[in-house]
Amino acid sequence: MPRIAFTPQLRRFTATPEVDTPAATLREALEAAFAVNPRLRGYVLDDQGHLRTNVAVFIDGRRCADRIALADALQPDSRVHVLQALSGG
Amino acid sequence: MTASRAWLATRKGLFELHRQRTGWEIARLHFIAEPVSMLLPPDAQGRMLAALNLGHFGVKVHASDDGGDHWEEVATPAYPPQPEGAAGPEWKLQQIWSLEASAGGRLWAGTLPGGLFRSDDFGRSWQLVDPLWQRPERLEWFGGGYDAPGIHSICPHPAHPDELLVGISCGGAWITRDGGASWAPHTRGMVAGYMPPERAEDPNTQDPHRIVRCDAAPEVLWCQHHSGIFRSADNAASWQAVEAPLSSFGFAVAVHPREPDTAWFAPAQVDQRRLPVDAALAVNRTRDGGRSFESLRTGLPQRHCYDLVYRHGLAVSADGQSLLMGSTTGNVWASDNQGDTWGVVSLNLPPVYAARFG
């Protein structure tokens, strides 16, 4: 089952659950984590539900391609890491 | 009553200052290392807000019910879904640039990219003031200070809870008298020297860097504009230009809460040279509505000073006696005699975004 984890940098603001989820896309995986901690949504996504400019997401070691719809496909054993980008901020 | 507490919102935290026998001392630092773009000082019950602008993770609002002893994150103002093809800046919150409370307790947050938000539950929820956001003129607003337009000044009317004036860089000055349901521009007399002559008086191109209102005489407003200083004595129905010594350019203005003719300014040389005239820091004070000024320098650096006092960097206390001034270099000065003399609070702080008493 795909697993999604968040940068420990976020822990000073809010809980960052590591979630195993049968998600088929990045957005579904994020929603599974937001269901555990709703406040996490605003740290990762902006007002329009897009990935924040200075947040980076890696899926199995590759940077996600779709920062708007977050439609990147996940494999059954995918590992998703939500990190802070080094640019900006 | 002599001011005993003050706050500095900075690039690396919210500094709480307490008055000691020797002067202002840093008593506490809240949100260390986080950018705090604005604060709402404690009300009579100790309720206050801090607006954070986290570099990676966006804008966040924290509330305290006990003057900063304990904080909790509350709701962040959020723009509604942007319609397909909507013109103008993206409907995404970039920064909270102003926070004020109306007489009835309603809170207002001015933001980049130009939206005004309202809260009736002290920040636990926020609503976009849609009638202002939907004004067609908004699409003519443009950035001033940042790439996107922003609301930096919110002037509630102390006697009329439903009346509010907001100042926008660059989008002029707007007033509502029905709690935000309808809005009208109020810039007659302002002139934008950076525009083509035929549009110099266009309300939507005015860049009021900061607008403040006199509490005791709310029909009097002072504006430090990109193209000079303007004063209104008729609640923004008209504005009159005022000439100050050294320079009429700058960002900050403070008005005495009880004496509408007394105001302070922190002049910078010119638009393209944003530093003190002759690298010597001064504060301009008028006591006669702008007919004359004094340039106050005692205690302020007079050699090789390159500090800029930004929009919210100059504050006056509720009794009109104390001033607090912070610069984008991170230097802070205070005065207890209306600016006659100044003392150093700190020369080692992060860039100061806002100074407030309370």
Helices and strands in order, then pairings?
The complex is a heterodimer of chains A (89) and B (358).
Chain A: E1 3-6, E2 19-20, H1 26-36, H2 40-44, E3 55-59, E4 62-63, E5 79-84
Parallel strand pairs in A: 1-5
Antiparallel strand pairs in A: 1-2, 3-4, 3-5
Chain B: E1 5-10, E2 13-20, E3 23-30, E4 36-40, E5 48-54, E6 58-64, E7 72-74, E8 95-101, E9 107-112, E10 116-119, E11 127-128, H1 130-133, E12 150-157, E13 160-169, E14 172-176, E15 184-185, E16 208-213, E17 221-225, E18 228-232, E19 240-242, E20 250-255, E21 263-267, E22 283-286, E23 294-296, E24 314-316, E25 323-326, E26 332-335, E27 343-346, E28 352-357
Antiparallel strand pairs in B: 1-2, 1-28, 2-3, 4-5, 5-6, 6-7, 8-9, 9-10, 10-11, 12-13, 13-14, 14-15, 16-17, 17-18, 18-19, 20-21, 21-22, 22-23, 24-25, 25-26, 26-27
Compact summary:
The complex is a heterodimer of chains A (89) and B (358). Chain A is α+β, with helices and mostly antiparallel strands and 89 residues long.
What does this structure look like?
The complex is a heterodimer of chains A (89) and B (358). By secondary structure, chain A is an alpha+beta fold. Chain A has one domain (3-84): Beta-grasp domain (Ubiquitin-like (UB roll)). Helices cover 18% and strands 21% of the residues of chain A. Chain A has helices at residues 26-36, 40-44, and strands at residues 3-6, 19-20, 55-59, 62-63, 79-84. A five-stranded mixed sheet of chain A has the order 2-1-5-3-4, with helices on one face. In chain A, a hairpin with a 2-residue loop joins strand 3 (55-59) and strand 4 (62-63). In chain A, 30% of the residues are buried. Chain B is an all-beta fold and 358 residues long. Chain B has one domain (93-357): Methylamine Dehydrogenase, Chain H (7 Propeller). Chain B is 1% helix and 41% strand. Chain B has one helix and 28 strands. Chain B has one helix at residues 130-133; strands at 5-10, 13-20, 23-30, 36-40, 48-54, 58-64, 72-74, 95-101, 107-112, 116-119, 127-128, 150-157, 160-169, 172-176, 184-185, 208-213, 221-225, 228-232, 240-242, 250-255, 263-267, 283-286, 294-296, 314-316, 323-326, 332-335, 343-346, 352-357. Chain B has a four-stranded antiparallel sheet, with no helix packed on it. A four-stranded antiparallel sheet of chain B has the order 4-5-6-7, with no helix packed on it. In chain B, a hairpin with a 3-residue loop joins strand 9 (107-112) and strand 10 (116-119). Chain B is globular. The N and C termini of chain B lie close together (11 Å).
